[in-house]
Amino acid sequence: MPRGTGDVVGVAVIAAILTLAGVLAISVIGKVRNRLSFDAFAEAVAELRAASARWSRPVAAASIAAEAGVLTLVLWPGSAIVGLAAAVLLFGVFTIVLARAVRRGAPVGCHCFGPSDTPVAWRHVARSALLTGVAAGALLAGRTLPAISLTILEPSQFLVALTIAAFIVTTLVRLDDLTWLLRGVPHTR
Predict the structure, then answer these.
(1) Which residues are within 8 A (CB) of 51 and not within 5 positions of it... i.e. 6 or more apart?
(2) What angle do CA 129, 85, 78 make, to 5 degrees?
(3) 3-state class of 25 per DSSP?
(4) Phi-psi region at 82: left, alpha or beta (left = phi > 0; alpha = psi -120 to 50)
(5) What pTM, to 2 d.p., does this model score?
(6) By C-alpha distance, which of 150, 148, 149, 144 is closest to 6?
(7) How does pLDDT run across 167-186, given as a tens digit for each residue?
């Protein structure tokens, strides 16, 4: 590998891990910050047809637990590869559920980051698909590194990765707001 290539790959992989961790952390917090948030998410699980109304609360709890588990795995030293593989599966499932809901015209919010009345749209599917791709790319690129941990980078490289991740996380989490600003597409929170 030419000099510097490993540095670029390392920064890209760590930026991807930080992006996934940031999105997952905000998602978990948004869904469990209070009882109303969890109840709204459980109701959305049923309306998105991810589970029947009877099973929506256990499936919502399992979804949140899976997000927290993947978050832990991608950040825990020595388990990043497993965490990235789990992230591919998790975000892949989210992509499929949201795509089916959009095709049906379901008038329900995804509640991805907490309560939302904005109906699911193709931009939400694209966001989940992008996160699936980020996880898959980091998984493939990470296999070329001797080890994956947040400590593999020099401080200046880590700052670059963190800055990239912060920008991407903010963009993805505030997607509906950005859509409204750029296109005037109405939404409610």
Answers:
(1) 45, 58, 59, 60
(2) 135
(3) helix
(4) alpha
(5) 0.89
(6) 144
(7) 999 999 988 878 777 876 55
